[in-house]
Write a structure and sequence with these properties.
343 residues, alpha+beta, Fructose-1,6-Bisphosphatase, Chain A, domain 1, D-Maltodextrin-Binding Protein, domain 2, 2 domains, five-stranded mixed beta sheet, 28% helix, 24% strand, binds 2,5-anhydro-1,6-di-O-phosphono-D-mannitol
Amino acid sequence: MSDSNSHFPPPVAPERGTTLRDHVLAGMRAAPGATGEFTSLLSHISLATRIILSRVRQAGLANMLGYTGEINVQGEAVQKLDEFANSVLINVLERSGHCGIIGSEELDAARTAGHPGKYIVLFDPLDGSSNIDVVSTIGTIFAVLRRVDPTSPPSSSEALRPGRDIIAAGYCLYGPSTVMVLTTGQGVNIFTLDPDVGEFFLSQSNVMCPPRGSLYSCNEGNFARWTDGVKNWSNWIKGEDKEEGRPYGHRYVGSLVADAHRTLLKGGIFAYPADSKSPAGKLRLLYEANPMAFIFEQAGGVATTGSERILDLAPTALHQRTPLVLGSRDDVKDYVDFAAGNR
Ligand code: AHM
């Protein structure tokens, strides 16, 4: 061969694209005074999700299916994978050195680090855990907030901030492929894991939730427990009206990550209203509803309790529950009108 450079390996195919780390770094370079800690924090979260994925993929083989026999703070049976995912996230985040406070669905109270880290991270380590045993889509949901005074000793009450203070949120979906949906407050981007390389690569940028969809997603088994307004909405959305595009199709996985992801991409509405059994709603405000609400608003969608903006709720407890309705702007408006008794 005449080429004098032929002994060098061929360059990495440039078309492979932008990694999650490249993407966050580019945002950091554009932010005056950035220190790299935020980029490092998000890289640690990405690492934790890849470690969780490795165990999710082997669940049946590694005898990780089923229950530990313990009951968590919410009175629910803890599954082995929940426990594993929780400890991975805590270990990785504590080692990062950037987190002053960590709040998780699987912790009794928010945990304070021994050092004054800049950030608060709140997460549901494994959302949709009832789907683990049936090999359906599950995921990790997280929100990142900046501590008001990063030099002060961290206190667990600092986790109780409204969702509008979130600076980054995302979820990682462990499905047929593994995707990380991330917003740092400048639109929503989707990264897909290349399992051979072990990296997330940007696969969809500036994702927008369509203003109206044709699917609705809720646990219809709760119908008898809903208010009249919600029952009327449910009957209306199932009713036949060709001109208005009804009936809507119904989809419900029972994993918030999966139901929200479909709603984000295809439009429509996801609703988990309050009901007579769960008068405060079922889903948790700080690490399920808030991160999803932040993502949907960043994508031009809406997230509400049915009457109030989710991101404006003032939390009083780490495991506070809330009704959650999110999705396409026009579909959520229909729901709000029915719930208020205006239709
Ligand atoms: P989990 O934290 O125990 O996984 O429960 C949260 C899940 C959500 O992912 C999902 O939207 C909802 O609970 C499903 O509830 P239901 O089974 O009542 O329909």
